[in-house]
Amino acid sequence: MQNKLQNSLKKSQKVLYSEYNSCYNGDHSHIQIGAIMESKDSFNRILTLLRKEKGLTQKEAAASLGISQALLSHYEKGIRECGLSFVVRVADFYGVSCDYLLGRSPDRSGLTLNVDDIPNEADKKDDNKLKGSLLPILSKKLLINSISILYDFLLKNPDKNLVTEITHYLNSAVYKMFRTVYSSNSKNQEKMFSIPSNLYEGYVTSSMYRSEADIKDILSTQPSNGHPLAKEQFATSTEQLANDYPQQASSLFNLIQEVETKAK
After folding, report:
1. What is the domain range of residue 52?
2. Which of 28, 82, 138, 246, CA to CA, is 20 to 30 A from 39?
3. With a threshold of 0.70, does the pTM exceed it?
């Protein structure tokens, strides 16, 4: 058992792509949130993040963890590789799971969510009780309803690559906006992210362009893989959208109008 856990620690220095292929198999109950996480530098990055979020100096954290400041500094910089007992000690000290420390889960508790665990926003009845301006609430509903229609379209012809690239593109857009807002407060720790602040915008934007190109290729009449996607299921009209999605179509229409008005 000890050897297996030691191997898990070493694997935290690799990209965990092996779980990727199980994230989408046509059955949405098997899509896992956070099933994939690039963890090349996860342990030392998260180790530093946890210390800074708790407002501790390296000296204070090292004393609490029973090691020297120099050794902790080496761990945080990725110069030295720690043992299993230290991983467990850090997890206990900061109140997180070892999976989180090793980059195997984005949740501090180590939780991996299935789609069935995610609450359905359309079923929430108390949005009007949320704090703050009405604009964020309406904007949220507009976006959620529009995305719901998009994914309903994808269900009509669930091509794995198409779903993967569209999801990556949307995830990237949310990532960019969240990080922009998050980083506006200088007290927030940039160590929450693995990509440096001076590189993330270029990296993520280029990745979005790549996904957009792949999406267009998949949907083209002569895709690079030589297997055209049957797109008859995607045929629709404004009337049909309104009939098929009486509670959501107006959100999509408003989204289209807002985007095009802003873009002109």
Report:
1. 2-114
2. 28
3. no
